[in-house]
Automatic annotation (TrEMBL):
Gene expressing this chain: Cyld_0
Superkingdom of origin: Eukaryota
Protein name in the entry: CYLD hydrolase
InterPro entries for this protein: Papain-like_cys_pep_sf, USP_CS
Keywords of the record: Cytoplasm, Hydrolase
Species the sequence originates in: Eurystomus gularis
PROSITE patterns: USP_1
A GO molecular function held by the record: cysteine-type deubiquitinase activity
Length: 226
């Protein structure tokens, strides 16, 4: 029985609990997309803990209890989640979602997040983006960009900035949670061999109508040049 609250792992505790063999979320039957997403969202941050405790309709509480008691709680307590627990969640998603292959096929993380956050738990969109004067709401942002020869080993800050610039995107407001999916790669092709995690993101230049400093005179800028 899981306690009412179990805080995310931080600093030395995160290293002690999560490092070593048989740590993390055990993979099974193309579950890597979901394992990586769940680990990123819950192991060391509480920003989405409303998904674990917010009252939902009775028909959706089974998904919530599996996520909370069988995945997040053991991950934060022992640093390990067995594959059967993730499969239990996948079975519930298959029953509730429009797709019948959540238990065996590899999916895009965005498809998983949209299903569990929007269709099942009914969470408000986390991001508001604007492109070409049109606004769109979403739960995560996937980095799309052409190969950049000058970016050999980029960090997340560089990738986000390049992606927003090439797609002519702006954040309408500061997001409560900024979930970013790295560039796609597979066995045959990897855009980058390594990506350095940015421990902080500066989104000043990504915000719509945000007051910013002129790079020449230091006053408040009135024009923006890509």
């Amino acid at each position: 029985q899981a306690p009412e609250s179990f805080p995310p792992l931080r600093n030395e505790a995160a290293v002690r609990v999560l490092r070593g063999r048989m740590k993390g979320i055990q993979g099974h039957c193309n579950s890597c997309y979901m394992d990586a997403a769940l680990f990123s969202l819950f192991s060391c941050t509480s920003v989405l803990d409303s998904m674990l405790f917010k009252p939902f309709p009775p028909c959706d509480r089974n998904v919530q209890s599996i996520l909370r008691d069988e995945i997040v709680h053991p991950l934060r307590m022992t640093g390990f989640v067995r594959a059967g627990s993730v499969m239990h969640l996948r079975e519930q998603l298959t029953d509730k979602g429009p797709c019948s292959s959540f238990t065996n096929a590899e999916k895009d993380p965005e498809e998983f997040l949209n299903l569990i956050m929007h269709q099942i738990l009914g969470i408000e969109p986390l991001l508001r983006l604007q492109s070409g004067g049109q606004e769109q709401d979403c739960y995560c942002y996937q980095i799309f960009m052409d190969k950049q020869e000058d970016l050999v080993v980029p960090d997340v800050q560089q990738l986000v900035e390049h992606s927003f610039l090439s797609s002519e995107l702006k954040l309408v407001e500061i997001p409560s949670c900024f979930i970013i999916q790295m560039p796609r790669f597979g066995k045959e092709y990897k855009m980058f061999s390594k990506i350095i995690p940015s421990l902080e993101l500066d989104i000043t230049d990504l915000l719509l109508d945000s007051p910013r400093e002129c790079c020449l005179c230091g006053d408040v800028a009135t024009l923006e040049c890509s």
